[in-house]
Design brief:
With about 260 residues, the chain is of the alpha/beta class. The chain has 2 domains: about 190 residues, Rossmann fold, CATH 3.40.50; about 35 residues, no CATH class. Helix content is about 25%, strand content about 15%. It has a 7-stranded mixed β-sheet with strand order 1-2-4-3-5-6-7, with helices on both faces. β6 and β7 form a beta hairpin. α3 runs antiparallel to α4 and α5 crosses α6.
């Protein structure tokens, strides 16, 4: 009798569709059940594709009976902030959809990481007398990364957006909902412009202040609004997209203090 009940429950459970390229590896942070993590291998520079790097990501599979086919793909801001530690919150926010989090290249859960302990130590050293030279520390970090073979010209918004497009293709989703916050609003509008067939209704963006959710529509044929990639203008907030600096930039990012990547403006 017990076996019959268990079998009946199993057969009545909603089927879970697994994306074709879903990762099957442990995650570096606590995540909810039915979440797995992996790496997307991409060229460090797509105009010189010999050297490869790895971009971290996580996929949470929804078990909702009314599961929608188009997932939400999320990236944190920064530049350089980590994303996958928010999977628990995001999966509750979108229970009827799969949720994908993408790490920025060069950030904490990607390889290589562009973290600069040199600048972190120098910032603490500013409390001492005489104060430490943060600029010199940043130069030391840049030189160390160069010695390791890192080409900082590959760490910019255009390349990060191309990573998101490549991940959709790897996972096999026909389309998904783009969700960006602060700096990553710029990334997601670049994604919507580069991959219009994969962006459901454009991009959902949270400006730097985080007060309002705004929507940036996909560009209409022949129309150019002057925004990044021609993806339309963000309404109601002037500071939605920040200047482009690589994901290692900024001492306050979740990926740790780092160096600025090449500016692609």
């Amino acid at each position: 009798m017990i076996i019959r009940v268990v079998l009946a429950l199993a057969l009545s459970a909603p089927p879970v569709m697994t994306p074709a390229g879903a990762p099957q590896s442990p995650c570096p942070v606590p995540v909810p059940a039915r979440t797995s993590c992996g790496f997307l291998e991409v060229p460090e520079r797509r105009d010189a594709p010999e050297r490869k790097i790895k971009v971290g990501y996580a996929v949470h599979l929804s078990t909702a009976a009314d599961r929608e086919p188009d997932p939400v793909v999320y990236m944190s801001g920064g530049p350089g902030s980590a994303s996958m530690q928010l999977m628990g919150f995001l999966s509750q926010m979108f229970p009827d959809r799969d949720v994908v989090t993408v790490e920025q290249r060069g950030s904490r859960y990607s390889q290589p990481s562009l973290a600069c302990p040199e600048t972190a130590q120098a910032l603490l050293g500013r409390l001492r007398q005489p104060p430490a030279d943060v600029g010199a520390a940043a130069n030391r970090c840049r030189e160390r990364l160069a010695e390791q073979g890192v080409d900082l010209r590959g760490y910019n918004t255009k390349e990060i957006a191309a990573d998101v497009v490549a991940l959709r293709q790897k996972l096999g989703y026909a389309s998904w909902n783009l969700f960006g916050v602060s700096y990553s609003t710029r990334v997601m509008t670049e994604v919507a412009a580069a991959d219009p067939e994969g962006a459901v209704g454009g991009a959902r963006l949270v400006p730097a202040g985080g007060r309002r959710l705004v929507r940036r529509r996909r560009p209409e044929p022949g129309r150019h609004d002057g925004a990044a990639g021609g993806a339309g203008a963000v309404r109601g907030h002037a500071g939605a997209a920040q200047p482009d600096a690589g994901p290692g930039a900024g001492a306050g990012s979740a990926g740790g203090p780092g160096v600025h990547g090449a500016d692609d403006r």
